[in-house]
Amino acid sequence: MIRSLLVTGTDTHVGKTFVAAGLAAALRRRGVDVGVMKPVATGRSEDARILMTASKSGDPLDLVNPIHLRAPLSPHLAARLEGRRVDLRVIERAYKALLARHEVVIVEGAGGLLVPIRDGFTFADLAKRLRLPLVIVARDALGTINHASLTVEAARARGLEILGVVVNRSRPGRPDLAERLNPRAIAKAARVEVLGSLSWRPGRGAFDAIARALA
Description:
The protein has 215 residues and is α/β, with parallel strands linked by helices. The chain has a single domain, classed as Rossmann fold. The protein has helices spanning 16-29, 47-55, 61-64, 75-81, 88-101, 123-130, 144-157, 177-190, 204-214, and strands spanning 4-9, 34-37, 40-42, 67-69, 104-112, 116-118, 121-122, 134-139, 162-168, 194-198. The strands form three sheets. Strands 2-5-1-8-9-10 form a six-stranded parallel sheet, with helices on both faces. The mean pLDDT is 95.
């Protein structure tokens, strides 16, 4: 079993929190002591609390989410509005503390892989600094082959390990032809493993399968 990973996305609102929480709950059902982390949150974010509920880890909120900024912007812009500069040492200390407490730590990013945490430092840089392999969440919609491939390419260019892609359907209704074909097309175009293709409101079994694939 891996010790930690970063759940990132091809964009914002693709279901990173949903996938990270589902994976945390699945690991817990397998008897794994799992911790969760949202290093940086902006706006009225409930992501950290959702992750904490899913993992039942019992860690304090300021350890799970060490940096919270009020404005619903990218972290570097939100911090600038508050006259702050995100302290990477705070994030690193919190991560190391969580890693010491748990068998596995699931870290959720904000937005996409290249969203700046502060000027000149992105979530890709954080993944490299903390040695976090990636699970990439892709929206199941037209255009996702391009978005997923770009994210994979950016990660590989930075020497990051990619565990796989999760294709997430975040709206009701029957999948159209593009959505049905997307997972296999992403796997081929990006030369990456698709760990799962989640339907609208998937059952536990879908996340259990992803957890098994990561074991």
